[in-house]
Each structure stands twice: as C-alpha cells, then as structure tokens.
Amino acid sequence: MNKHHESTGPADEQQITLRGPAELADALPYLMGFYPNDSVVMVALHGGRGRFGGRLRLGIPQSPQEWPSTAEQLAECLVKGSERRGERPDAIVIFLCQDPADGETPGQVMERLRPLAQRLRTACGALDVPVLEALCISDGRYWSYCCPDPRCCPAEGNSLSLPGTSVMAAAATYAGIQVRGSLRDMEARLMPLKTPSVVDQPQALDAAGAALVPRILDEEGRKEVARETLALARALMKRLREAPTTAPSAADIQDDSLISHDEAAAVILGLQDRETRDKAAEWMEGTEAESALRLWRALSRRCVGPYGEHAAAPLTLTGWVSWSTGDEPGARVALGLALQADPEYTFAQLLHQACNQGLDPETLRRCLRGERNNRTGRSTHRTERSAARRAVRPPAVRRKRAQPGSVRPGTTVARRRARGESRADGRGGTRSGRQP
User: Fold this and answer.
1) Dist. CA 290–CA 309, nearest whole Å
2) Concatenated DSSP letters for 254-280?
3) Can you tell me the distance from the alpha carbon of 385 to that of 374, in angstroms, rounded to the nearest whole number?
4) 3-state secondary structure of 293
5) Other CB atoms within 10 Å distance of the CB of residue 26
6) Where would a tag sit more exposed on the chain, N or C end, judged by fewer CB atoms within 10 A?
7) Local confidence pLDDT in tens for the 436 residues of the chain
C-alpha cells in the first residue's frame, strides 16, 4: 500500500493475497479508508490476478423501487469511468453494508437486500463485466450472494475477523494506513449541530444576511465584506490554534464553544461569495492548514435550519484542505456532503472529480500560491479574477429544494447521489488475487 495515501494501493514491493469472501470482507475498510455503513460499494478488478482499480460508494436507496435504475447507473458509472481512465474492468466485487433496523436481525438485512444484489449483478452482466463476488456485511457478520455452499457460507453468515487481525490489517499497519472510523462518524463531525447551544444560530444568520446581502450586491461593498470575512476567519483560526490542547473526542466541542453565533454567521455568509471562498482556499498547507480545517468543520456544523445549503462552501473548503494535506477519505466524505447540500456547487464537483481520479492536488496548490503572490505584490503581473460571485439568498427567497425521492430535470436520483459519493480513481491498488 502506498504509505502516502491512506485510501489506496500497496507499494510496489509489497504483495498481498486475499483468499475468499472472508478476507474480501475484512479488506473493505482499508480499501475505502473508513467503515462504509449504509452503503453500496463496487470495486473494479483488472487482469488475471484481480488488481483492485476504481471503487464507487453510494448510500443504499431506501425505496426498493429505486434499486433497478440505481443498479444500472452504478454499473455504468464504474465501467465507463474505468474505461475513460484507459482500463475496462475484467470483473467487479460488490459489497452491501447495512446494520439492522430496530427489531431486525442481520440475516433479515441480508435477505431484504438480496434483490438489490441481484439487480447489481444483472446490471454488470449487461455490460459484459461479471460480478466475481457480492457480499452483505451487517452487524459484524457477512454473507455471500454468489456462493451456494453452506459449508463455507452458512445461512447464519460468518463472523468478521476481529479488528486488526486480518491479512489486510497487517499490511495496512506495515504501510502506516489508518481506518478513520465509520462513515457515520466521519459525517457526524460535519453535520448541522442539534444541541441546545445552537438554538439562536438561525437568528444570527438571519441578522447577518439582512446586514450583508445589500452590501454584497454593491461592488465596493462586496470588496469590503470580503476583507472583513477573511480578516474574521483569520482571527478565528488564530483563536482555535492558540486554544489549549484537548482530547480528540472533545476537540470539536471546544472549537464550537470558541466561535460565537454572530461570528459564525458572518463568515458563513461571507464565504457565499466565490472570490472570497477562493481566497480562503489558499490556507491549504503548512501551519495554516490545521486551523483552517478546524474552522471549516465548525462552520459546516453551524449551517442549521433553513441554512443547510450554505454549508456547501465550508464543506468544500473542508474537503479541499483534507485532500491537500493527504486525507483523501476525509476529503471525499466532505465533498460528498457538500454536493448533498448543493448538487450544483461547481467547486465541489470539480474537486470531487479530481480527488476521485487520483490527480495530484499540487497543481491546484501551485495555482492558489500564484494568486496569493500576485495579490501580495510578489509578482509584477497581477492576475485579475473573473469568477462570478455566488449569490447569497435569505431563506425566504432560496430556491425550492427537491424532496427526497424526487428527481431534478435531466437527473436521476442515483446519478445525483453518485456524483456526490462515488469513487472510481482508476489507480492500481490491492488485488483480490496476488497484489502489488
């Protein structure tokens, strides 16, 4: 595994052999960088030895009526995406991961999801790509939808290996790879707060909007708001950086307590301007990156009530800084949530695509450094930016969001979700057979 990228591939000198459903199930968190609860995961296999290539994750649609179209589009997304990167898959492995609901057993989860597994297998087969294995993982057990032999795949399922004891776990430890908890845990750090402490946050956002929107609509006022937003963001970063060190489990709570409702509202609304957001994106490395990441996470949690769509800006900045500093799993989670908040948010779309394709963030870092140098007088030629600003709308005039299960014109539910949550990076990784 590559020691510099937690989410992908073994180093060239290291080879791993995964034998059978048990080791495939145990390997999944190391392939993704986290435990993907409530997810469909599809992984492309290449060559006779089954090298892992592109991978894609999508939340399991709640309605079985969505499963046929979802299966077709996921199969097409993975196969066509791999082809665009120059290598059509020779096979695919499917994982369905979901814990039981109240009163449900893991075995009942497996049976309930069986039609989805069959739809996915059929959709892949229609594209002439066979499904080598389809597994259900629920509550610490796994089942194979492909193996009919009860001696190795009994009806009650098999227990997963204890964490840290599998072949993949040993290889990951050697490579310095960490599994960053469950997807649910990672998303919880970025979701709107539901504690009594934020009951007044919507009112603060209302007041800030009433004060800032008229100024942003004026060219000179917009520039003043941008300067104020960036200055306040820097002051908050400094405050977070200088705060006493606390336990990781309490770090987010401490950060939330250090930022007032009015301060959070002012920066959140200021970041809706694209030029301001792009300047904030320059804090993506060195000593600035850690405090910037903490600030963007905290602001994402403050986008509560009718201001959920405003989270697209701080979530995208969270994803960008995570990617820039080498945390690809964290980047994909943040960018996926940004696209859930606003599926049309272009910056999140571009970053998510680039991260998923395995591009080097240094290209964008170099561009942002150049912008900063031009602005601070380190270059004799100033680059004028022409990016259109993102309008800031009070809740009363915000566009109507599609309801769960509805479809925007020209977009299917699965395609909208896949855009926010898929991964098909096309890079060589671990293999289902002998792996580099």
Assistant:
1) 24
2) HHHHTS-HHHHHHHHHHTTSHHHHHHH
3) 11
4) helix
5) 21
6) C
7) 222 222 333 334 455 556 678 788 888 888 888 889 899 999 999 987 778 888 888 899 999 999 999 999 999 999 988 888 788 999 999 999 999 999 999 999 999 999 999 999 999 999 999 999 999 999 999 999 998 888 888 989 999 876 655 666 666 665 666 677 789 889 999 999 999 989 999 999 999 999 999 999 999 999 999 999 999 999 999 999 999 988 877 899 999 999 999 999 999 999 999 999 999 999 999 889 999 999 999 999 999 999 999 999 999 999 999 999 989 889 989 999 999 999 999 999 999 988 877 788 999 999 999 988 888 775 434 433 433 344 334 443 333 333 333 323 233 334 334 434 443 333 334 334 333 3
DSSP annotation of 312: H
* Helix-helix angle 261-270:219-242, to 10 degrees: 130
Phi/psi of residue 135, nearest 5 degrees = -120, 145
Residues in the chain: 436
Residue that has been written with the tokens 């469950």 in this structure: 182
Which residue reads 């049309």 in tokens? 344
Nearest C-alpha neighbor of 296 from the set 321, 275, 274, 272: 321
* pTM confidence score: 0.71
